[in-house]
Amino acid sequence: EIARYYIDVAGDMNQAAAAVDTIVKKYATSDSAPNAYLLAGRLALARSHQAADLDAATANFERVFRLFPASDAVPRAITLVGETMWYARRYEDARANLSRVIAEFPMNDSASDAYLALGQVLVALGEPALAMEELQQVRNRWPTTPDAATALARTTLLHRLYVRAPRGPAYALETDTIGPEKLQNVVALALSGQSTLYFASESSLGVLTEGSTERPPSVPRPRGLVVDRTGQVVAFDEGSLRPATGPPIPLAVTQSNGTPKALSKMEAVTQLSNGDWIVADDNDRTLHRFSNAGEYIGAFGAGRFTRLASTERDDVAGLDRDQKAVVVFDGSGTVTARMPLRGTGYDLQDAEDLAFDTFGHLYVLDRNALAVFTPHPAAPVDAGSPAAAAGSQTPTYRLLTVFAPPENGPGGFRRATAFAVDPSGAVFLYDDRAERVTVYR
Questions:
Q1: Most buried of 250, 278, 301, 329, CB within 10 angstroms?
Q2: What is the per-residue pLDDT across 335-369, written as a single tens digit (0 to 9) for each?
């Protein structure tokens, strides 16, 4: 329980690791040992979602059902193995483990988590319709739980992209707007983990969701917003991160002579699963990496980026101003994909913003259109195919749909500058010409 407190409440991974180490070394055969191994695996995932830590996490989770097969922790351990395999893009292995939980422990709470994770795996395997069926099981079996709400949101998203979009527009304009009728010079929108919509303009920061108790950080001249790994909205100005609580976190890079140089024109920020910040500054052509506390780690990638977004698996996408492309990096900073802003079926020469959803679909906002790209195959992957046998695969993005309503029509937008995507795939979009935020579902 001490280790769990340090992980889930205090966020102190060093203290959590010390507590886990004590149990594993001194009480290796006790009833607490299985959960200690679970926590050891979670600590490995908290360090990074790179290969070495994913392997370490898997090894600790597997110790639970190998060494303690009768433990109550077994269903959770198998589920976490499946989720870890999803992080590693070992989709068939993930599918096998998650299916085992569902088959062997159908009434266990972990089965609900297994269904949710299996939905993500099936989409990655090119089977969105089957994913929707599995997600529906959560709603059928646990209808009043938060997991049921999550399943409904994810099913809605998949229906929009894979059922509605092939037959017509993926989105329709809602009749009501959110926030005031006039809102000027918005540079960013962000949805917190509590579904509160924040905005940042050139001179102010605020909340648009009526009745929300959340309060934005105090920032005189914000340059953007980012949602951290806990679901909190963090603002940033020219040289520092501004969380809702606590002091600002100034950022400075270490120069070749060892002296620090403060950032002075931050353009975009995103956060990795382990808390590291990836930051683009307009004064250079380098993405910088900082720790959660703001300590400089080093260069992450090259390019002049105006927007950044990241996934649970630490894929980082950026709008490269000079190359007129979307560039995707993995968690180590290696380029894994590069998409020009003009291609077959789309033209995004005035791209303004981008975002990911929970399945890894990439949304790119143009001034008068929204394009959605997918890294997943168009057809189911055969379990015996070379692609499936290859294990971890480098994502290849393809166009899924483009939403471009007539500019002068009731649902059209002419100069979109910022947007946010909620868990159900609904879009909150700011149109600088109309000076308001509209909602598309």
A1: 278
A2: 999 999 999 999 999 999 999 999 999 999 999 99
* 207-to-161, 181, 213, 423 alpha-carbon distances in Å: 28, 14, 9, 18
pTM: 0.95
Cβ atoms of residues 37 and 61 within 8 Å: yes
In terms of Cβ atoms closer than 10 Å to its own Cβ (0-12, 13-18, 19+), residue 412 is middle
For 40-52, what is each residue's pLDDT tens digit?
999 999 999 999 9
